């Protein structure tokens, strides 16, 4: 069978967990074949239409749809999903019929690539995984060495390698230096995670106001400030604002009304809502009940995280590495606001799992919560922007107020 989509191999920088990842296939507890629209590029759509394979022809005839509205060669058609937890009609006995009866070169770009995202930053190729995949989340969040960076070779389809290029006087090396500086700041030892996030905010705010010539001196000066401990002394006086955290992030949570497409997703979403005091009929929570429940949960969260000590740090590192932080928004501070909004929403969900009396959630439950969070929010390209805009509109985008959001 002729190769439909050619590939190319690149040397790449990877977090170690990426090299360990293997799709769990039919054993996956929340398969990527459920609940999402699978888009088809024109080449794949045409190949499916022309296929005469006895096991697949009828499925192709009845389940392919043209993407008439806002269609393109990359978004030319889609697979019409069916009802139920296994929604893709091409799934046969827990395996993809295309991969079983044809070959992986005939998978759509969406199915071939997920959960991997490969990007070239100033000529350096990197790859990480989306944590909406249960196995990717498990590998990334629990292993102590998941974010040791290694060099390996990756295979990418032509046209599926994203790119971030230098602009103006900011050369490729400078882009990589900024990126490495941000990642190193988030991995600083002996500093609480919320303090690292707070310092990252200061750096991103200043970076947004600095021209290319001033970036290297800014990094040098900032490194000296961190090493001196002066910033930590100031941050140590700040107190958490649990009421604001609960109200703001619960409001953002409620904006996403999708109940979840699988039993796993629905169970997590229902547990979060119920533990935060939502009425089972209306979904409404009284403010006082919400704040009390969240405060209890967020105060118990560190005890739960003691059994998964790398979980939140690795979540943030994955977000930053995967989406080329701080170059994934209009400026570095906007990128930071979007990161903080996602972090705050995730912490709300994790805290909610810790509200009930009795045993705290185990590491598997915490990982499951992160995975469902990513599945629910991270694949909406507009949500992070709406969330940061909501912070701005309420006046919570200034660093002095954000600090109260960051501390547990």
UniProtKB/TrEMBL annotation:
Keywords: Cell projection, Cilium, Flagellum, Methyltransferase, Transferase. One of its GO terms (biological process) is methylation. Its EC number is 2.1.1.-. It comes from the Bacteria. It is an enzyme of class 2 (transferase). GO terms for molecular function: methyltransferase activity. This is Flagellin lysine-N-methylase.
């Amino acid at each position: 069978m002729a190769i439909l989509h050619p590939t190319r191999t690149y040397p790449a920088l990877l977090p170690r967990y990426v090299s360990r990842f293997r799709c769990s296939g039919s054993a996956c507890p929340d398969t990527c074949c459920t609940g999402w629209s699978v888009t088809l590029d024109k080449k794949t759509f045409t190949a499916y239409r022309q296929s005469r394979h006895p096991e697949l022809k009828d499925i192709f005839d009845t389940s392919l749809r043209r993407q008439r509205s806002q269609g393109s060669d990359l978004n030319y058609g889609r697979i019409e999903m069916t009802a139920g937890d296994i929604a893709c009609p091409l799934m046969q006995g827990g395996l993809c019929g295309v991969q079983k009866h044809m070959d992986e070169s005939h998978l759509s770009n969406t199915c071939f690539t997920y959960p991997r995202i490969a990007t070239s930053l100033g000529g350096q190729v990197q790859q990480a995984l989306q944590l909406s995949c249960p196995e990717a989340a498990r590998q990334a969040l629990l292993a102590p060495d998941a974010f040791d960076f290694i060099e390996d070779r990756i295979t990418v389809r032509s046209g599926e390698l994203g790119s971030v290029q230098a602009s103006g006087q900011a050369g490729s090396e400078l882009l990589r230096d900024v990126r490495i500086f941000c990642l190193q700041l988030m991995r600083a030892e002996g500093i609480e995670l919320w303090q690292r996030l707070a310092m990252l905010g200061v750096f991103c705010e200043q970076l947004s106001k600095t021209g290319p010539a001033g970036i290297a001196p800014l990094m040098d000066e900032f490194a000296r400030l961190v090493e001196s401990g002066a910033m930590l002394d100031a941050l140590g006086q700040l107190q958490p604002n649990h009421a604001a955290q609960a109200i703001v992030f619960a409001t953002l949570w409620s904006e996403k009304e999708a109940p979840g497409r699988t039993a796993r997703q629905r169970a997590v979403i229902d547990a979060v809502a119920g533990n935060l005091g939502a009425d089972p009929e209306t979904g409404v929570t009284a403010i006082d009940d919400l704040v009390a429940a969240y405060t209890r949960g967020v105060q118990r969260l560190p005890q739960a995280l003691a059994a998964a000590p790398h979980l939140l740090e690795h979540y943030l590192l994955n977000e930053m590495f995967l989406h080329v932080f701080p170059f994934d928004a209009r400026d570095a501070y906007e990128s930071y606001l979007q990161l903080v909004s996602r972090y705050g929403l995730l912490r709300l969900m994790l805290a909610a799992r810790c509200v009930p009396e009795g045993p705290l959630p185990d590491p598997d439950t915490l990982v499951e919560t992160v995975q469902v969070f990513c599945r629910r929010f991270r694949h909406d390209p507009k949500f992070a922007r709406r969330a940061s805009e909501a912070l701005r509109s309420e006046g919570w985008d200034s660093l002095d107020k954000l600090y109260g959001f960051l501390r547990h």
